[in-house]
Amino acid sequence: MKSVFVIGHRNPDTDSICSAICYAHLKQILTGQEHIACRAGQINPETKFVLDHFKVEPPRYLASLNPRLSDVQYRDVPGIRADLSLRRAWEYMNNNNIHTVAIVDEDNHLQGLLTLSDIARFYMEDLGADALAAAKTSYHNLVDVLGGELVVGTAENRFEEGRVVIGAANPDMLEEHINEHDLVILGNRYESQLCSIEMNADCIVISLGAGVSRTIKKLAVAAGCAVIATPMDTYTCAKVINQAVPVAHIMRKNGLISFHPGDLVEDVKKTVSKKRIRYYPILDEDGKYIGMVSQRNLLDVEKQQVIMVDHNERDQAVEGIDAAQVTEIIDHHRIGALETTNPIYFRNQPLGCTATIVTQLYHENRVEIEPAIAGLLCSAILSDTLMFRSPTCTPIDRYTAEELAKIAGIDIPTHAVAMFRAGSELVGRSMDDIFHIDYKSYQVKSKRIAISQVTSVNQEELHELKPQMLDYMRSSLEKSGLNMMFVMLTNIIEETTELLFVGHNAAELVQIAFQQPGGVDSITLPGVVSRKKQLVSPLLAALEDESIAD
C-alpha cells in the first residue's frame, strides 16, 4: 500500500513540524500503513533546537506534490543489446508482451529503440539479398536463427559483403550467379559446395541436415569460407535468414524522446500528446535506462494521499496540493477555501495549537505517548502559545502542555526560554531568511498580503532589526506579487509587537484595523503577540472595507 504523507504548511513553524511527526507516528500505529512526516519548507532555528533536544530526525522535505514519473507504475523491462538478432528481439517482446524495447550498451546507456512496427517494416520494405551484409550480421546470429552448427569459421566474425544466393542450379550455371563474398544456401550436392568455395563465397549454408565432407571442410578453411550446417530445408533457410540481422540495423537512433523519474507527469503528458509513439524510455540521473512508460501509464497515475496538519488553506499548502488526495485535515486556524473530491476527516478546534489536538487524538485512541513524542508536542504548544502568553491559548492548551512536560521530563519555563532564545538568534542571517522564518500569505478579493512574525526575548535585537527589515520589505514588495507586506516584531517577555508595513494604503489599512494612529511604516501594539487571533482578523476585516482602494 502506498505511503501517506503528513505535512504542515509552507514556511513551517514548530507546531507544523512537530504535529506532522507526531500525527504520522500515531496514524502508523493505528493503521499499520506507512505514514511519512513531511515538511514544505526549511526548518527554523527554534524547531531545530527542539528536534535536536529530543533527538528526532527532521521530516522529509517535499517541494511539491505534483506527480512525477517516479510515482507512475512504469514497466521495469530490461533493455537488449544492439547485436541481438531480430528473431530473438521478437521473441523477447512477445514473451514480455511489449511493443517497444530499449537497446542498451554494456553499461545500460540507451542506444536506440525497437518497435514491432520497425520489424514489420523491415520485412516489408528491406528484404534485399544484401540485407545481411549491410547489417554486418554475425555468424553467431546466423547459426542461431538457422538452428544449425558452425562447422567451419568463427562465431564472432561477421558477414559484411556480398548477397544471399540460393544454389539451386547446376555447378555450371551456379558459377554465373555467385560473386566473391556471397553467402550461398544449398543442399548436399558436393559439386555445388565445391563451386561456391572456388568462387570465393564467404559462407555456405548446407541445408536438410546434410553432412559436410572432410574435403569441403579443408577447402573451406583454406579459402576462409564459413560453413553452416542446418536441419532446415532451403526454402525455410531463405525465409528466416534475414531474422539474423542485428537490431542495431533497424533500431531508431535519432530524435529519441526519453524522460527521467523526476520529470513532472504533467510536463511529460504535454510532450507525448503531440507524438504517435506509445512507449518512452526512462533514464536515471546517470543516463542509464531503467524502464519504459506508456501513455496509458500516465493516465493511470495514482494520486498521493496527504494529511494536512496546522493549515487548511490552499495558499499555505505545499505546491501541487490540488494534484493530491487530501484524506484528513487537523488544524486550529480559520477554515479556508480548500475543496476535496470526497468527504474527509476534518478536525478543527479553536485551540492555541494543533499539537493540542494531536495529543487529544492519542488519548482518544488510547495510544501511550512516548517521552520524545511528548517533548515535541509540548514544545509545539509552548511555541504557538508563546508559553501561554498568547490570547489564543486556552486552559486546555495549558493543561495539555503541563501533562506532556511531565512525560517528557522537562521544566516548562527553562525549556521555553531556551527554545525562544534559539529561535530569536538573528545574528548573521539575511533579511530574506528572517522574513520567511514564520511567514503566511492571505488574499481578500483582489488584494494579497503577507504577514511575517519575528519573535525575540531581546528588545534591543528587535530594535536593531527594524530599519534593515523595512529596507528589505520596500525592495521586495514589487517583485513579490503582493499588495502589502507586514512584519510583526514581537517581544515575548514584554508581550508587545511593533508592526512594520509597506505597500499602497498599508498605513490607512492599519489605522482602520486597530483604530489608532501609527507612523509612516510602523505601529506599536501593546499586548499583541498572536498573529492568528490578534492581527489577521482585524487586518482582513479592514481589507474588506471598500474605502481601501487597490
Q: Tell me the total number of β-strands.
A: 23
Largest sheet: 6 strands, parallel
Low-confidence stretches: none
Question: How much of the polypeptide forms β-strand, as a percent range?
Answer: 15-25%
Rg over alpha carbons: 37 Å
How would you write the strand order of the largest sheet? 3-2-1-16-17-18
Please bin the fraction of helical residues.
25-40%
Shape descriptor: elongated
Mean pLDDT across the residues is 90
Distance between the terminal alpha carbons, to the nearest Å? 50 Å
Structural class: alpha/beta
Count of helical regions: 20
Describe the structure.
The chain is 37% helix and 20% strand. The chain is α/β, with parallel strands linked by helices. It has a six-stranded parallel sheet. The chain has 20 helices and 23 strands.
Task: Fill in the keyword field for this structure.
single chain, 550 residues, alpha/beta, 6-stranded parallel β-sheet, 5-stranded mixed β-sheet, 20 helices, elongated
Could you give a short description of this structure?
By secondary structure, the chain is α/β, with parallel strands linked by helices.
Any chance you could write out the topology, listing elements then pairs?
Blueprint (H helix, E strand, L loop, with lengths): L3 E4 L6 H18 L3 E5 L5 H9 L6 E2 L18 E2 L4 H10 L4 E5 L5 E6 H10 L5 H4 L2 E2 H8 L2 E4 L5 E2 L4 E3 L4 H7 L5 E4 L3 H9 L4 E4 L7 H10 L2 E4 L4 H7 L24 H8 L6 E5 L5 E6 H5 L5 E5 L15 E7 L13 E4 L5 H11 L6 H14 L10 H14 L3 H12 L7 H5 L3 E6 L2 E10 L2 H22 L3 E8 L4 E8 L2 H9 L7 E5 L4 H13 L7
Parallel strand pairs: 1-2, 1-16, 2-3, 4-5, 10-11, 11-12, 12-13, 16-17, 17-18, 20-21
Antiparallel strand pairs: 5-6, 7-9, 8-13, 14-15, 19-20, 21-22, 22-23
